[in-house]
Design a protein that fits this description.
Layout lengths: L1 E5 L30 H11 L3 E7 L15 E6 L17 H9 L3 E5 L4 H9 L5 E5 L9 H9 L2 H7 L3 E4 L2 H9 L39 E6 L8 H14 L3 E6 L5 H10 L6 E4 L5 H10 L2 E4 L8 H8 L4 E4 L2 H6 L6 E4 L4 H12 L2 H18 L2 H12 L11
Parallel strand pairs: 1-2, 1-4, 2-3, 4-5, 5-6, 7-8, 7-10, 8-9, 10-11, 11-12
């Protein structure tokens, strides 16, 4: 197959509703594109004998790129226009993509999310008979974007639907939401979640960190990976740790993240005298360094009050860690309480504390939960399995004779 993967946004940033919408392009840049999920997926398709072109907004082009290095894998950083009006981290406007997909005549065009400007342009103007949407969004966003989304689905969205050959939901929440919008007839029978590189695997790295953190062989290390903002629940987690160390003093929390509440959380840690029990890792790290943090921890925790589709759950499960998470689309599909982790109703310090204690006080339990999490992740998140599932979905598409090339 000749496959186009259209994923223009590779780094999500909070939208800023002003002109221009960002202060500097530096906030969009990654060090490299070699660690992107979309690149990993493209490589898996190539391994299976397919020819792949990946489209990404040129706003996100790093200095170190995999372009032109792998035969059969073409990465195009496509020109993004009118950046003052179309926020590049949300709605990159790249009309040249229409011309490209028309000329190349791909067997499959896989677009990431129905409500992406690139998806809309391709659905309306590319004239391709084989457009597939790999849908993530599972609810209307917050005001004012919810109004725009609602109007889209009931106007332009109806025209786009006619040109969509298949929609693959990432989660059951996604399937339910798309069904409510009248798209049930084009939904693929199976949900297919994001894939993660097999670089995410169990490993023992604790010896490397004895000099860096106040830990020992018996320390229970808890990891949270989140942006430091109000709805990520990190304040609740810090308060839970303050209570936890009263009964379980040999626990240590690592928080990987940065954000507007960084200083506030540092002050809270000092106020609660938790400097020897909590560390916030603010600096940017590579994927290999992030994997080591997952391998280092005993328990992964996600205390968010609101999260759309957190990658971190899949990453933690791939490294064989039990997950404590508040309810979200990924957790509800893959976290089974007392089997792969613990899912709690909301971000609440008491609920977080009770969940942590139930695992820490039963080491055999959380080891078994970690093994179960790894098994579940390999079936649902391993990039090679996800690639095979997507190819199987593509093969179900029947192109009417009058639409075929």
């Amino acid at each position: 197959m000749k496959i186009a993967l259209v994923n223009l946004v590779t780094k999500t940033i909070k939208p800023i509703f002003s002109l221009p919408p960002y202060k500097s392009k530096k906030q969009f840049l990654l060090d490299t594109d070699r660690e992107l999920n979309i690149i990993d997926l493209g490589k898996e398709f190539v391994k299976s004998g397919h020819e792949v072109t990946i489209f990404i907004s040129d706003v996100f082009k790093p200095k170190d790129t995999i372009q032109n290095e792998i035969p059969g894998l073409n990465v195009i950083y496509i020109k993004t226009h009118l950046q003052a009006f179309f926020i590049p981290s949300r709605f990159p406007f790249a009309p040249e993509i229409i011309k490209n997909v028309r000329i190349e005549q791909y067997d499959i065009i896989l677009c990431y999310d129905f409500f992406e400007l690139s998806s809309i342009l391709i659905l309306l103007f590319s004239k391709s008979p084989s457009i597939v949407i790999w849908q993530e969004l599972d609810k209307f966003p917050r005001f004012p974007l919810n109004i725009i989304h609602y109007l889209f689905y009931h106007t332009i969205g109806l025209m786009c639907k006619k040109n969509m050959r298949l929609m693959i939901p990432k989660t059951q929440h996604t399937r339910t939401f798309m069904t409510s919008l009248g798209l049930e007839s084009i939904l693929y029978a199976k949900n297919i979640m994001w894939g993660f590189s097999n670089d995410f695997h169990p490993g023992y790295v604790r010896d490397e960190y004895y000099a860096k953190y106040p830990i020992n062989k018996k320390t229970t290390i808890i990891l949270a990976v989140a942006r430091l903002e109000e709805d990520k629940g990190i304040g609740n987690l810090i308060c839970a740790i303050a209570s936890l160390i009263k009964t379980n003093p040999n626990c240590y929390l690592l928080i990987k993240g940065d954000g507007p509440l960084y200083t506030q959380y540092l002050n809270l840690i000092k106020e609660l005298k938790l400097e020897q029990s909590i560390m916030i890792l603010k600096d940017k790290i590579s994927r290999s360094e992030l994997i080591k943090l997952y391998q280092l921890c005993d328990i992964f925790i996600l205390p968010s009050e609101r999260d759309l589709m957190p990658f971190s759950i899949g990453e933690a499960m791939m490294t064989g860690k039990p997950v404590i998470s508040t309810k979200n689309a990924v957790a509800e599909d893959f976290i089974r309480t007392n089997r792969t982790g613990i899912m709690i109703e909301r971000s609440d310090s008491t609920l977080l504390l009770n969940s942590l204690q139930s695992l820490i006080n039963d080491s055999e339990k959380f080891k078994q939960l970690g093994l179960n999490a790894r098994s579940t992740a390999l079936d649902n998140f391993a990039i090679n399995n996800v690639a095979n599932q997507l190819i199987s979905a593509f093969k179900t598409i029947k192109i009417p004779k009058n639409d075929s090339k």
